[in-house]
Amino acid sequence: MPMKPRRIFLQKAGLSAFALSLPVFNSVSAMTAFSNSAGREDKPLRVAIMGLGSYGTRVADAMQTCKRAKLVGVISGTPSKIETWKTKYGIPAKNCYNYQNYSQIKNNPDIDAVYVTTPNALHKENVIGVANAGKHAICEKPLSINAADAEEMVKVCKAANVQLLVGYRMHFEPKTLEVIRMRAAGEFGKVLFFQGLSGFIIGDPTQWRLNPVLSGGGAMMDIGVYSINGARYMIGEEPIWVTAQEVKTDPIKFKEGIDETITFQMGFPGGAVASCLSTYALNNLDKFYLDGTKGFAEMQPSTGYGPIKAKTHKGEIDIPHVTHQTVQMDEMAAIILDGKKPIVPVDGIEGWKDMKIVDAIFEAVKTGKKVMLT
Ligand code: NDP
Asked: Which of 96, 140, 165, 308 gets mutated to test ligand 1 (max ligand atoms within 8 A of its CB)?
């Protein structure tokens, strides 16, 4: 699908403003990832999406304007969706698989990577299946449903000599990266406080997100992970302890194993404290606030599909919106194909770190005690 001129302009404007605001992006390798004249552009990352649901479709649409990543295949349990995707995205029949035969993808030289967008509890077996087929794996958040599974996924991918990346789209979002740049440059002074609010009112009680066997947990696995991950990249340190408290107002909808609302706190080695809320019971919760001795950053919305809004003590951060998944997939192509190092990591270890914190939060809820992470 050809890119509309306005889209080209916005994307170019966004990326050049972004590059200007981030000196690290002025490196040759960073710029070639986006340059039309770059020779490496000839070699795209050829991606198959596994799990053709709501998010898989969003990624597929966003990939239509990618420069380095190309949607070339599907893995699905629903034959009718495969037919639709073949037509809609021009996917050849030889690149279409189901969950029973996708190990055969190892014999397909036209697919480099598989993007797993299935329910959370299936990520582990799906990523391991992809690795065993010798393909790079990109996995949606949460990487797994506990730290032990994440560790196994990281190890299996390493042993198979394939890369494992996590779909942390915010790690490539320009306003987020500008706040991170300012914090790293000391513009907020000594950072001592972060607030992360992540939540929405969940609908259909029969969906997999409310089935612990498929979701591995409730709001924390789904949306709370944004505040966990955000606290880490906004503060720029790894937490050393957590405390947490749970509130459940609807035990029928939010059955055993599905958290409705959890408030949690994390302590960081530099003295910063994060105070966060994860919930399936309230809308309009998509906010990050970072405060230091010299200034602050406020992002609201902070992790939605955008446009993200960000302001600091110096004023509004005015960088044009980019489609998160388009930038993410182009950057991931550069990571996999060129060995590019992202500013905020998106590898399996990054997802594993978040899962260790999720485990600790659940333990803190259960025991009522502070849980040490070191
Ligand atoms: P959906 O239910 O919309 O899609 C999941 C798809 O997985 C299904 O359509 C189905 O596709 C496949 N699937 C395979 N096995 C099962 C099963 N047992 N039950 C249900 N579906 C199955 O979910 P989402 O797309 O909303 O979420 C998928 C993943 O993406 C989750 O891990 C979620 O956390 C993550 N996500 C990330 C977002 C982000 O912004 N980064 C946003 C939204 C979700 P098929 O019929 O083709 O097999």
From this structure: 140
Query: Residue 374: its pLDDT value, please?
Result: 83
333 within domain boundaries: no
Residues 158 and 15 both lie in one domain: no
Number of domains comprising the chain:
2
For residue 117, the CA-to-ligand 1 centroid distance in Å is 5
Same domain? For 130 and 237 the reply is no
Mutating to test ligand 1, I would choose from 54, 200, 223, 328 the residue with most ligand atoms within 8 A of its C-beta, which is 54
Distance between CA atoms of residues 24 and 187, nearest Å: 17
What pTM, to 2 d.p., does this model score?
Answer: 0.91
* Residues 183 and 161 both lie in one domain: no
pLDDT digits (tens, 9 = 90+) for 147-201: 999 999 999 999 999 999 999 999 999 999 999 999 999 999 999 999 999 999 9
Q: Is 292 in the pocket of ligand 1 (CB under 6 A)?
A: no
In a domain, 360, yes or no: yes
